[in-house]
């Protein structure tokens, strides 16, 4: 198990590195968007290249930061139901979800994205818009991002197995504490509003 945990730590390090660096592209996209808007309003000039570049940057951030999001536990969960369940049940839900849903989903999409990318690459597919960007680099992001997400899913399964064996602390304990703190704060705010005199 220790060798698997070492592999998991390596995967986590890689996903964190990719996610942190990729997240800076949000700033680049905002700058490009702002400059494009100013140039369009002031000089009445616009470019499909910069417009499409914003879309590409969004795609890069969305697809390459997904593994980091999974690692940090910031993916979408039904917290109201999740926090009401015992920790052991939540561990089994995570394990079953990763094995039977996340990994097959990523594998199928990577498998279908490869020919999707190859056809685009061999045709040197270009944008339908005048002055637009080539399409095949963007299409490659689908298989790259989902392949990294697949690998991160393996890391999550390893960690969840270690947690269930008692080798790692359960991060859901902290999430439960945070949920309880949020509930207490909500109660305090509600009390302050009801006791406030007009």
Give an overview in words:
- The protein is mainly alpha-helical and 198 residues long.
- The protein contains seven helices and no strands.
- The chain has one domain.
Q: Mind sketching the topology for me?
A:
Layout: H1 2-23, H2 25-43, H3 48-71, H4 79-82, H5 87-122, H6 136-164, H7 171-195
Keywords:
flat; mainly alpha; 198 residues; 0% strand
What is the gist of this entry?
The protein is an all-alpha fold and 198 residues long. The chain is 80% helix and 0% strand. The longest helix has 36 residues, at 87-122.
Q: What is the count of β-strands?
A: 0
Termini separation: 62 Å
Percentage of residues assigned to helices: over 70%
Spans of at least 5 consecutive residues whose pLDDT stays below 50 are none
What is the overall shape? flat
- Tell me the series of helices and strands, N- to C-terminal: HHHHHHH
**Mean pLDDT across every amino acid position:** 86
- How many separate helices? 7
Provide the gyration radius in Å.
22 Å
